[in-house]
Amino acid sequence: MGGAEGETSEGDGARAARGGRTRVPAWREEPMRLSSWIVWGGLCLALAAPALPAAAQDEEEDASRLAAALNQPQLIRQGKGVYEGYGVGCHGEKGDGNGPAARWLDPKPRDFTRAAFKFRTTPSGTLPTDQDLHRTISRGVFRSSMPAWFLMPESEKVAVIQYIKTFSDRWKDPYEYEPPIFIPDPPDFVGTPESIARGKELYKLMRCYNCHGETGHGDGPSAATLTDDHGRKIRPFDFTSGVLKGGPGLKDIYRTFSTGLDGTPMPSYYDSLPNDEDRWHLVSYIISLRNQGKHKKK
Fold first, then answer.
1. Where are the domains of the chain?
2. Which SS3 state, helix, strand or coil, does residue 233 take?
3. Among 1, 125, 223, 276, which residue's CB has the most CB atoms within a 10 Å radius?
4. How far apart are the C-alpha atoms of 201 and 84, rounded to whole Å?
5. pLDDT tens digit string along 279-293?
């Protein structure tokens, strides 16, 4: 999962990432090796980006059908092997986000024992769908050490999703599940001057500036006080810096406004902005801030 596997031979570093025992893990002797993992992961993200939309949607739906058709204990056994090969180095043997490489990573790897996931289509505070987890595994998390495992076979993605669920009892509670929020296609008005102006008004009305700053640079008056669900310092996103972690598309940004990012101070605006057009106007304004950042870099 988080942190790419850059080894081509079964040396100490590869065995450590797979959960095997070595005298001294390679990343403790050679911290710079971790950098190559992250660079490799970044390359995966870059290569994956152009192929996301329709094909990814089909793969997510196929993954759900495959999971329903296969034997659950068998899936979990297979998923354990996949997790030990790709995820244990960052997320840890216990799934608590404390793998051997975690000390060097910012943001920290996801703690699966809490079952709180940022990138979902489901309402705030509820569990993600299998398709949500599949999307994150396939395209990674932008601007983080979580690479895009888009070349991983579908059967392995399906299996590791089921194994991830064994780390928390939340998955056994039927009351933790809610249907996904409908994410419509962007209306034609998104990106127009009128929509951007309305989005700017809403940005002020919803006090987004408290965290993200008046100009969207992530430097609001509350920025220095924010923490995640582990009590660790967390920085509000700088909208002028480029692609958001949840993805580059308009629907990705709309999804974040609609669901919030569980485990962080970022709330859902599904109830506070029940008119979906208002959330799209916010998307327009955020895109305008991103474009301003591009022009300044030039």
1. 12-176, 193-297
2. strand
3. 1
4. 48
5. 999 999 999 999 987
- Rg of the Cα atoms in the chain: 20
The neighbour count for residue 191, using CB atoms within 10 Å, is 18
10 Å CB burial of residue 225 (0-12, 13-18, 19+) is exposed
Q: Is the pLDDT of residue 164 over 80?
A: yes
pLDDT digits (tens, 9 = 90+) for 114-128: 999 999 999 999 999
Sign of torsion, CA 222 223 225 227?
A: positive
For the stretch 65-70, contacts whose Cβ atoms lie closer than 8 Å and that sit 24 or more positions apart, written own/partner, are: 66/154, 66/155, 66/158, 67/130, 67/158, 67/161, 67/162, 70/158
Count the Cβ atoms, other than its own, within 10 Å of residue 11.
11
Which residue, among 151, 124, 147, 159, has the nearest Cα to 260 in the 3D structure? 124
Question: CB count, 10 Å around CB of 42?
Answer: 18
pLDDT, tens only, 37-90: 333 343 333 333 333 444 555 655 666 665 655 678 999 999 999 999 999 999
193-297 CATH: 1.10.760.10
